[in-house]
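Quick board copy: two proteins, each given as sequence then tokens.
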Amino acid sequence: MNTLKSLVSNLRPGTTITGKWHQHSYRILKELGMGATGVVYLVERQDQSLAALKFSFQSMSVSAEVNVLKSLSKVHGKVLGPSLLDVDDWKVSSQHQVSFYVMEYIKGEPFLSFIKKRGSEWIGVFAIQLLGNLDELHKEGWTFGDLKPENLVVTEHPITVRWLDVGGTTLHGRSIKEFTDFYDRAHWGMGARKAEPSYDLFAVAMIMLHAAHGKRFDKQDHSKEQLRKALLSKECLSPYRTAIQKALEGKYTAAEEMKKEVIRGLNAPHASSQQTRPTSTKRHSTRTKIKVKRKQKHLLETCLLFVSVMFMYLLYLFLQVL
């Protein structure tokens, strides 16, 4: 197993992977990421389209992740995780083979990079999108598990947050199999590492904190108070404070509940007043532009009058000479 793990984790660009059963070939372009359950590569398919190929370090992980992707594809009218394209084995040698699956390559901008460029007002928008998708996933009986910004990408036309890797997705009731400390409630002493909707909602709250602060922060003593202060210290989170606090404390049983709370926060008077500031600034800017245009008009009229007077004076001198 260690030999196979080492092999599939260090494939060079240009390496061709051919499935044992379906005979589909994929050319490795570059590594996209590595986690506890496997490694993902960007590959070129036989028709020259791009895809993401994941080698799993455990054969059981492939079956579980493929089942998740199939479940997501059954959600009518929703685009949740990547589309599943192929499942096969790669014969490494005469004695060894490794399982892999191929999924849609979702091209977009990293979640945190997008917010940094476009502004913190997108935190609430993406939280609503993410919670809507999680609600659909939870209804299928799955917990995402390793929910973090690195597993999220923002696509254009329309601007939408999408999931990249479902490797940590776990059936409800089981122990979370893959996690990242900062987004894990057990790490903060705020709950069990059990697959259930509230586990993912804690992670959503931590993603919002991370996006607002622009970085992760280390756990300190009295972690519950630390998270409360982190929430209160960022004014851009004020519309979502109730939702985030409830999610941190595990008070939601469904993603839809948190989603409604975030929407209520955005529609609250204090949120509306914040959103009107750019309009007020714009109105002031418009008045300033009008004043400048009026001054320019007056200056032009004065110049024309001066030129007219000078012309009349020169004409008078010319007639006097005659």
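And the next:
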Amino acid sequence: MINLPDRYSTVTNTLMSGGFGSVQPVRDNFLGRDVLFKFMQSGNDDGQLRNEIQMLAKARSKHIVEIYDVIKDDDGAVQGIIIEHLKGRSFEDFHLEAVNDPAGYLKVLYQIAQALVVLHAADIIHRDLKLDNIKTSTAGVVKLFDFGISVEGTDYHTVLNRGTFVYAAPELFVSGACITKEMDIYALGVCAWALASANTPAVLFERPPQSSARVPSIDTVMSGKLAKEVVDLIDACLSTDPVRRPTAKVFCDVIQNHLVRDEHRGTFVYNEKLYQLSKDNRRVGLKFPGIGGIVAVYDGVRFEITSVEGDVYINNSAAIAGSILHNACVLTFGRAELKSNRYWVTFSSSHPEVIL
């Protein structure tokens, strides 16, 4: 039995055990809060504990469980760690509400992907992303935990295909598979299915998964409640070709835009005059006779040029119908040889935040 420092007192002797580690609720008497003490069931698994300490120290995010303390014995050997006690909800039954709450569904996926953005930016691959490793804090923030088999870098080749079956990407089912960020994205796609339905597609149970057929579209269970762009994004996560999967950052950006639908504002400025695109004014036309003009629309997610007349440039690149106006840019009306007879219009867009 591990002796905890006097700072901590046992709340219950009941242990929550996983594949390798055990977790015990304890009280931090100094800070007056409940926390968890995590330790390994076998001394042979101490490497996983050290690995978790290193990963949690390198990747900090409100969507990643916090590590508070490292417990050592008198010889300085690590005995366990003190981590955040997530007392919020788990997600094994979330499918019961997903189809009737598509915004809530997307918010959960968005927060999971936010954790992956931070991890992947630090070159950390979680390797065991699944609903069992996701829970909310008392404030309702979705957090990812259990980093025991996470790896750092892009050249790690697995000896033992550790992880969780069904969440494992097809490319893992070979000897000496190289662990990649795309495998986390595949697991994110499986999470999307598990959050939406109790019936996991049978092809995900094949070894390797999707050997006989591709997984159905998420739209088959979300029943048209998601925008096509979002459906395509989630479906792409489960592509058998890792190259076709989106990055965590792309995933977050797309989901965020749809969570703040109709809340953006785009503003054109010319000679102190403002022309604004928003949900209340979805179309703006700008025209300089004999030079050029555009029509731009706001579809609730993005600002798009739908028609161009004459010579118009966005940051020196020719504007065409279908061009997207991003963040902040300058529109130039007229060819370069017109010099001072050209017209310049600035465009900027707001960045509404997702309210969790």
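Board note added afterward: The two ends are 41 Å apart (CA to CA).
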